[in-house]
Amino acid sequence: MDSKNKKTILVPWDFTPAAENALLHAVSLGKKFDNNVTLLHIADRGKSLSNNSKKIQETIAATNKLNELTRQYSEKCKICINSIVIEGSIFTTIADVASQLDVSLICMGTHGMKGMQKITGSWAMKVISSTDIPFYVVQAPPSKQDIKNIIFPVDENKETAEKLTWGKFLTTKLDASIRIVKQHFEGGTKVSSNMAFVNKYLKNHEIEFDIYEPPKTKNFIDSMISYASKKEPCMILIMVKRGINITDYIMGLDEQKLIFNQYKIPVMCINHGNKAK
Hints:
By secondary structure, the protein is of the alpha/beta class. It is built from ten helices and ten strands. It has a ten-stranded mixed sheet with strand order 3-2-1-4-5-10-9-6-7-8, sandwiched between helices. Helix 7 links the parallel strand 7 (177-182) and strand 8. The longest helix is centred in the first third of the chain and has 25 residues, at 53-77. It is elongated.
């Protein structure tokens, strides 16, 4: 397929090591998905560029620097990489740009949660929930080995089945297997129903999988992270909670704990209503 007609993986870019980690993951996934990669640098909207020659010069410099970096990585990685520089806010502009491009995935690097972010909410979670496009969140460079395991939690949430189309897509493109982590839930009729549905779907599509059920005395999220660390190189595939608010951030979201896991395992975050194509 001509590169102009391919989907693209969008990478928010701020010239930091975290952004470079995301770019390296995007390149790896782009080759597997047959996608291009697009770097997006957002100039702070709060520092108006109009009538401000210094800021205009800074933006021109950033654009030139990004164009050169794009050229270098395109040649080095043998993949089409484009770049965009635009004024805005990370909390809205990433979603706005993604809606205008044929974006399959947004690959974002993060340093994790620090300081007041634990109270006001991780900026990463705010950005992730701003669009229905999936996010691939990374804390470290990609492994030298290809991802072969997709960690797939099955719990009582009715949205569990929504991950299945992405699970199927990822196992096909990455030649990977599904590693189900089943939540123990007293009187867990919904968990059993979800598990039966997932089991049938995977068997019908001839997808290799196995099932791990952590001890009921252990925290489900902690157990999942520990299990995933033994299956590296892998990714964790999750659904993002609807209607995230300040109370969720204060109490602590399961998504946050997974995304910022101590083993720095990449996490694919699927927003509701998005199906792999």
